[in-house]
Amino acid sequence: MTKFVFCTGGVVSSVGKGVAAASIARILKSRGISVSIQKLDPYLNVDAGTMSPYQHGEVFVTEDGSETDLDLGHYERFIDQNLTSSSNVTTGQVYSAVIASERRGDYLGSTVQIIPHITDEIKRRVFQVAQESGAEVVIVEVGGTVGDIEGLPFIEALRQMHSDIGHDDLLYVHVTLLPRLAVTGEFKTKPTQHSVKELRGMGIQPDFILLRADAPLSDGIRAKVSLFCDVDESAVIPLVSAETMYEVPLIMEQAGLGDLIMEKFNLPKAKPDLEEWRRVVERIKHPERRISIGLVGKYVELVDAYMSVREALYHAGAHFNVGVDIKWVESELLPENAEHLLKGVDGIVVPGGFGYRGFEGKMVAARHARENEIPFLGLCLGLQVMVVEFARSVAGLEGANSTEFDALTPHPVIDLLPEQRQVYHKGGTMRLGSYPCRLVSGTRAAHAYGQDVVSERHRHRFELNNRYWEPLRSRGLVASGLLEGADLVEIVELQNHPWMVATQFHPEFQSRPNRPHPLFLGLLSAALERSDRNTTSAAAQ
Ligand code: GLN
User: Does residue 241 sit in the same domain as residue 154?
Assistant: First the structure.
């Protein structure tokens, strides 16, 4: 019988509920418990794929090709497990399914209503994760904040599960923010009290309250929350802002949350094995040295947009015991200021993206990396940028472009995939999910991976146009990875350059704190060499 941990949020959104849910999963998994995680997103979009990063941060892609909420990225990184499309449920999916059933006649004779039809469909999807994963404990996070109109059916479904499966096999965790008054430095518990009251009004009494705070809390605060919210004092857990999110499981463990959950679920007491995790956290917090990597994007004011790329850089940094200082470079500013904006970086990453804005600036970054022998990693659009820049500057293909940006370009070096030509609907129709890629031996990419065939996740409509491969190849562009069994180029690299590699897929989605991605390791290793060389030559002068 699977047990469930339901996580809700109160007071404000973006309080770190996703990291909290992922951390709970981590501390349970560290006790040898098998876990899975699911996010319930109350918006009407069927998936996160149609939303701008301004709305929603990064769109995370699962192995099976679902475009999901970025919290799934946290989940995968924290539990070191691949999740599937079942792990992200939206209102859009639930309503589409119920309305399709209604049209089929599955409910003939009945009035179709939010309770029970919508709530039943939500519960079916929660149980589906339990069934598909076979996990002993499934953690379910509800997006948004308690009291949001859109979240009501989800909260109601989770309430019903209390009577469906009984209280021994489920528990409710409520994550709130404790604001602090600047003048007195005093923490205020009232918003938490209100949000718990609201949750109780919907029939849910939390078993645990996690209090996000920006400084350590006194026991008095915990006692007060315990009294007003009717939760054991030991179950009021302070989550003081951490230096790195990977510290949160350690903070929870320290506060005894792991043992309390095990006790509540009547699971045997077990000592968690968090040694490896602790080592990674230690290295992230206290690296031996630092390195600067330029990340060139158009959403620099919005760090969430490149969440997995940022994390993949940190993971690789931890492997080398190096702290990665990410220099966020706004691509639109690059054409005028490349020297200045990219000064001092030992590596450059151009991540994925859509739309023309910032594209020319990203090409300036690629040219800068190519001409100055700065290690470079291009991801998806980053590959397309590198290829277009190379085509124009080195292969003499004047006006070369991607047809995404110039439908009438004389040299469409990047073009729609053939199967994309018939696609008219935008939602869920890109080339999505994992495909096998065969590495070409002797290349930098093959060296980095140390494998013949790898599987990587995609999310794009455009691809390198093979008609242009010959002029590009003859000038020094190397195909280092091909779609297994086909001649689609998935990885390119530059011959006469220390390390300039780009992928049509998104390697960042598979990087884990304990298993950094080989290509990010490759980039950092080249960047470190460059930094060492620069230090040595500066010392010699
Ligand atoms: N816009 C490009 C395409 O659709 C790249 C997509 C991406 O970077 N994820 O092919």
Answer: yes
